[in-house]
Amino acid sequence: MIEGFYGGKFLPMHLGHLYCIDTAARQCDHVVVIMFINGEDEQEVAKTNHDPELRVEARIRQAERVCALYPNVEFHVIDDKDLMLPDGRSDWDAETPLVRQYVPKIDYVYSSEPQYGAYFSRAYPEATHVIVDAERKTYPISATMIRAMETMEEKRKWMV
To answer: b vs e for 117-147, b when ≥16 Cβ sit within 10 Å of the residue's Cβ?
Structure first.
């Protein structure tokens, strides 16, 4: 059985995330999608952006809806609140055993970020890092870009 893993903050979940989940679901027998909540990025965004779509509950609902589209995709949430380094950054190494409780064996770990490769090699040495649309040619969007948009109409074009 080929096992895949895709994690993110989904702040908010957008078409690029859906594309990555879809890619993983087509390439693997089973995929675990994990949303990390209450991390440093989310706390920073919450200071200035009060969009209800960015609240934890709304993001979880978005991710549950997307993952339910695929019979081989399972969804979980990991709370980063107590997994911070002294400088306030999220401690990805502390997340690793929590991820492993949901995905003990990982064949493929998915992201659109080549810079995550070193961490993935250390945390999931048995897994191949599959980089999906790093140049964002299929969906030229990021969560940062969506959060900067002024109207909900603009945002909804990209969100799932």
So the answer is: eebbeebbeebebbebeeeeeebebebeebb
For the chain, what are the domain ranges? 1-101
Summarised one tens digit per residue, pLDDT across range 11-48 is 999 999 999 999 999 999 999 999 999 888 888 888 88
Percent of the chain clearing pLDDT 70 (strictly above):
100
Q: What is the mean pLDDT of the chain?
A: 94
Name the CATH code of domain 1-101 (choices 3.40.50.720, 3.55.30.10, 3.40.50.620, 2.40.10.240).
Answer: 3.40.50.620
Strand pairing partners for 31?
4, 73
